[in-house]
Design a protein that fits this description.
With 266 residues, the protein is mostly helical. The protein is built from 8 helices and 5 strands, in the order H-H-H-E-E-H-H-H-E-E-E-H-H.
């Protein structure tokens, strides 16, 4: 067993205290800054909200279609593998077909050479650009962020993403001058965003016949990205409900036991 000397233990605790203090200060400063730059997005009615919330499988599949046909042109999804799509209701053959629809770099082979192959279910989603410089060159100097945890990385998560996608304005407010190549969106910090409006009515043709309005596509792709950021959500909530139920039953049993024990003393 390793014995930690008091001096070392104090140093470790001190470093942790400083780290947590810096993190807390960062959040304290970031909160007012964000709220000053962008209004709080309107809360949406998401199927996955609340203790009993679950993902809408149909919305997830439509959202994946929007990501695949629109968002994946610029944005990566580095933390998600094609095999993870089985959680959306796709069967094994469908997952294989989706993965095989993209080309990935393989190798090296026996000759030490790299080669191009069809995607496999174990592959992570293909990055649209080979490197950051190529991504910036194709996007007016801006670097499209990875969307794997986007709904967890932004304040108000899904509500923010939905508001961002549905609130581009053709013209900025009077007195606001946009930088070259920028677009006005009040929900983006600073209100100027380099990403062109990604959604337009009927930009995709939903396989289930749902009308592809901007609002519908925004809600669907947000649902998909909420799952990508937190794929264990349903399992976690199910476990949480079980724990709560267990604690309620345990509390009732302990209370009954307490009454039984003390009843003999009074």
């Amino acid at each position: 067993m390793t014995i930690v000397k008091p001096a070392c233990r104090a140093a470790v605790l001190s470093r942790w205290a400083l780290a947590f203090g810096a993190l807390a200060l960062g959040f304290a400063l970031a909160g007012p800054l964000w709220s000053a730059e962008a209004p709080k997005p309107k809360a949406q009615d998401w199927s996955f909200n609340g203790l009993f919330g679950t993902f809408d499988r149909a919305a997830q599949q439509r959202g994946f279609q929007v990501y695949k046909e629109v968002c994946s042109v610029c944005h990566s999804l580095n933390q998600v593998a094609y095999r993870n799509l089985s959680a959306l209701g796709y069967n094994e053959d469908q997952v294989k077909a989706i993965a095989a629809s993209v080309e990935m770099q393989g190798g090296p082979n026996e000759a030490g050479e790299m080669f191009i192959r069809k995607g496999k279910p174990f592959d992570k989603f293909k990055n649209p650009f080979p490197n950051e410089n190529a991504a910036r060159a194709a996007n007016n100097g801006a670097f499209p962020p990875d969307l794997s945890v986007m709904t967890k990385a932004r304040p108000h998560g899904a509500d923010y993403l939905y508001a961002l996608l549905t609130n581009y304005q053709d013209e900025p407010p009077k007195g606001v001058k946009l930088a070259e190549g920028m677009f006005y969106n009040k929900y983006f910090p600073g209100a100027q965003i380099a990403m062109v409006p990604p959604l337009a009515a009927d930009a995709v043709e939903y396989q289930d016949g749902t009308k592809a309005t901007v609002a519908q596509m925004a809600k669907d792709v947000t649902t998909f990205l909420a799952w990508a950021a937190e794929p264990e959500l349903e399992e976690r909530k199910s476990m949480g409900r079980s724990v709560i139920l267990f604690l309620l039953v345990l509390t009732a049993l302990l209370y009954a036991l307490k009454r039984k024990i003390w009843s003999d003393l009074h």
